[in-house]
Design a protein that fits this description.
The complex is a heterodimer of chains A (about 100) and B (about 475).
Chain A lengths: L4 H10 L6 H19 L33 H6 L9 E4 L8
Helix pairs in contact in A: 1-2
Chain B lengths: L6 E12 L38 H13 L3 E2 L2 E2 L2 E4 L9 E4 L6 E10 L2 E14 L3 E3 L6 E5 L6 E7 L6 H18 L11 E11 L9 E4 L4 H20 L7 E6 L4 E7 L9 E2 L6 E2 L2 H9 L5 H11 L4 H7 L3 H11 L5 H19 L10 H12 L5 H14 L5 H7 L8 H14 L1 H8 L6 H11 L6 H12 L1
Parallel strand pairs in B: 12-13
Antiparallel strand pairs in B: 1-10, 1-11, 2-6, 3-16, 4-5, 4-15, 6-7, 7-10, 8-9, 11-12, 13-14
Helix pairs in contact in B: 2-3, 5-6, 6-8, 7-8, 7-9, 9-10, 12-14, 12-15, 14-15
Classes of the chains: A mainly alpha (about 100), B alpha+beta (about 475).
């Protein structure tokens, strides 16, 4: 796989990040280096090795269905960039005019 | 033949079932509807760094229940995955869901349609979490977000594209709602959003083997609106095809007032969810013993009850369907017949006067104060001929509703409704009646049997309505020879 300008644009959009032309150029190089590094691993035969997903081998860790209050309403809103007494406020995300 | 008849619709439904757990899926915030905004939240719900999710066992058990009720394979190995996307009501930036290891796969639901019963395949059921609630129309500048719902457990149930009409979809959702209510895992309230449905709709020429372009429709807040949205969408797609226009796979929203759909976003610009295993939650395994344990705690399902009521109790399909419509009706009926009351009489009473009363007062079964035992006593009074059905339903039943502690018999005595079935008493009145109408007696004896009604009327009047009609009639006929 080869990273080019388009790959960077797509990933930047998915991560909601913006880069200028110089930064993008730099990222193309850096990401290709990263991929090359990871591709080194392909030299190993891993056909008989199951993927490692979890670092611990614990299973069936459950919580009983009991509600427990943790923080207050005020604490919940404390770190929001924009808020009122009840809600966290965000820029409008839907155009109500429809089509 | 209309052009619409030349096409076949193909529909699959995704139903989101909000679970009736007390706490959220991956943290201990209370899961309640209607609390003050942003009061049922914690650092986990709000996606603060360094927090760790912790899975609710009850959500797993609800998943097993639904899987059993829909004849699914319950899968042993269950892992979680992150579905990544940015939206203001999902603070973590990803939803914890099950991607490659859904809890249930390959089941089916039987639905009732005008063309008979149909089997609808269930592709999968998986566990996931709900997002918060965004309000876009309360404020001119901002969207307001409430995270109380964020993290509430959901089961997403995906059907095979086995539905062929808007009516099929209606029947399917009605069945799903009935099931989740029987199982007590969801209140099934589409108006409040605790059960939600997205419809995947395409059309193709009849006899074609390849499905047409699929369109997803969202935002239908009732089963009826799902039906309307599908009807509209089928017609819209056929009209486009007939006009020679192509259309793309997209997501559309239903607009209830006009009964139309409008485009939300194009699926072509495909969401790239970049699923990967959720490293913060260990996987769980469901052993067969756990499934058996859940199974043992499950109530009888509507299908089983329907079969029992029709086959063992000899009720009609109509009665059985109405009695199994809700778990509460079925339970009440079962408790009444447990008192040695004939099933048919119990069904008539429950679907007649009792249901009529509940409808009139807009009450549900849980609010009915009349104990099944009392209703059984009342039915027995009628069956043994002590009071008439009319007296029981018009006079005793309303009084019992007001004073549920009284016995039906004492009310009947108080109101002087006990029927006279004493032969000597009835015979003496019958004689009186016949002596008063010698010419009518002659008419009867010459073949005009219709005048019996007149004698009966007079007899009932003389007995103040307390004569047992069956007995009285036979005594009259005996005296008339």
């Amino acid at each position: 796989m080869k990273v080019d300008q388009n790959t960077v644009d797509r990933l930047a959009h998915l991560a909601r990040l913006e880069f200028n032309a110089d930064e993008k150029q730099q990222l193309v190089g850096e990401m290709n280096n990263m991929l090359a590094f990871v591709e080194k691993l392909n030299e190993l035969d891993t056909d008989s090795v199951a993927p490692l997903v979890y670092l611990s081998d614990s299973e069936n860790v459950f919580r009983e269905d009991e509600p427990k209050p943790w923080i207050t309403h005020q604490e919940a809103l404390q770190n929001a960039a924009k808020k009122d007494t009840d809600f966290i406020r965000v820029p409008k995300v839907i155009d109500q005019s429809g089509e | 033949m209309s052009i619409y008849d030349q096409y076949q619709a193909v529909i699959g439904l995704e139903v989101h079932i909000q679970l009736l757990t007390k706490s959220k899926a991956y943290c201990a915030d209370a899961a309640e509807y209607g609390a003050d905004s942003n009061t049922l939240v914690s650092p986990i719900t709000l996606g603060h760094p360094g927090t760790l999710p912790f899975f609710n066992k009850q959500a797993m058990e609800f998943g097993i229940k639904l899987g059993i009720a829909t004849n699914c394979t319950i899968n042993e190995y269950n892992g979680f995955a992150r579905k990544n996307y940015f939206y203001a009501d999902l603070p973590k930036g990803y939803q914890i869901t099950q991607d490659k290891t859904p809890i249930c796969t390959q089941g089916s639901i039987l639905i009732e349609t005008k063309e008979g019963d149909k089997v609808i395949g269930i592709t999968r059921i998986h566990l996931e979490e709900d997002a918060g609630k965004s309000m876009h129309d309360k404020d001119p500048i901002d969207s307001l977000v409430d995270f109380n719902r964020c993290g509430v457990p959901l089961l997403e149930m995906v059907s095979e594209p086995d539905l062929r009409s808007a009516e099929d979809a209606y029947a399917y959702l009605t069945e799903v709602r009935k099931l989740v209510r029987y199982l007590d895992i969801c209140d099934g309230n589409m108006e409040e959003g605790s059960m939600r449905c997205d419809a995947n709709i395409s059309v193709m020429k009849k006899g074609a083997t390849e499905f047409g372009t699929k369109v997803e429709v969202k935002n239908m807040n009732s089963i009826r609106n799902v039906q309307r949205a599908i009807e509209f969408e089928i017609k819209r797609q056929i009209d486009l095809l007939e006009a020679g226009e192509s259309f793309t796979s997209e997501t559309r929203s239903f607009e209830a007032t006009a009964g139309t759909t409008f485009s939300l976003r194009s699926k072509e610009a495909a969401n790239d969810y970049r699923y990967f295993p959720e490293p913060d939650l260990p996987p769980f395994r469901i052993k067969s013993e756990a499934i058996e344990k859940v199974k043992a705690g499950m109530p009888a399902l509507p299908r089983e009850l329907f079969a029992k009521f029709t086959r063992e109790l000899g009720l009609s399909d109509y009665d059985a369907r109405n009695l199994t419509d809700t778990k509460e009706t079925a339970r009440y009926f079962s408790e009444v017949i447990a008192q040695n009351v004939a099933a048919k009489a119990a069904a008539n009473w429950i679907l007649g006067p009792v249901k009529g009363y509940l409808n009139e007062e807009a009450l549900d079964w849980n609010r009915l104060k009349l104990a099944p035992q009392k209703l059984a006593e009342l039915i027995s009074l009628v069956d043994s001929g002590k009071i008439s059905f009319t007296a029981a339903s018009m006079q005793v039943f309303p009084e019992l509703i007001l004073s549920p502690d009284k016995s039906p018999e004492s009310i009947a005595i108080e109101k002087d409704l006990i029927q006279e079935s004493n032969d000597d008493f009835l015979e003496s009145i019958a004689k009186e009646v016949l002596e008063a109408w010698p010419d009518k007696v002659a008419e009867y004896q010459s073949g005009k049997k219709g005048v019996l009604g007149l004698f009966m009327g007079d007899l009932m009047k003389k007995s103040k309505g307390k004569a047992d009609p069956k007995k009285a009639s036979s005594i009259l006929q005996k005296l008339l020879g």
